[in-house]
Specification:
By secondary structure, the protein is an all-alpha fold. It is built from 4 helices and no strands. It comes from Acaulospora morrowiae.
Length: about 80
């Protein structure tokens, strides 16, 4: 509920649940990425880094948008 109301921490946590498929939530990388992007847009400082780490763990290329967002936040 808090994620739908715009809480960046809740968006981050929900995105993380979806990305990892934890606590009975079915894994959905696409939806998890959308929630992480929303959290990033609301100012969550770790959302894009967490998402990039997951892409790397899955041996998937990290999208340019995420790389740029991390650079802007000074994490690269």
């Amino acid at each position: 509920k808090a994620a739908n109301q715009g809480n960046p921490n809740a968006m981050f946590n929900f995105g993380d649940l979806l990305i990892n498929g934890a606590h009975g939530v079915t894994q959905d990388l696409e939806q998890g990425a959308l929630w992480m992007k929303k959290a990033h847009q609301k100012g969550h400082p770790h959302a894009y880094q967490k998402l990039a780490d997951r892409y790397k763990a899955l041996n998937m290329p990290v999208p340019t948008e995420i790389k740029e967002g991390i650079k802007i936040r000074g994490r690269c």
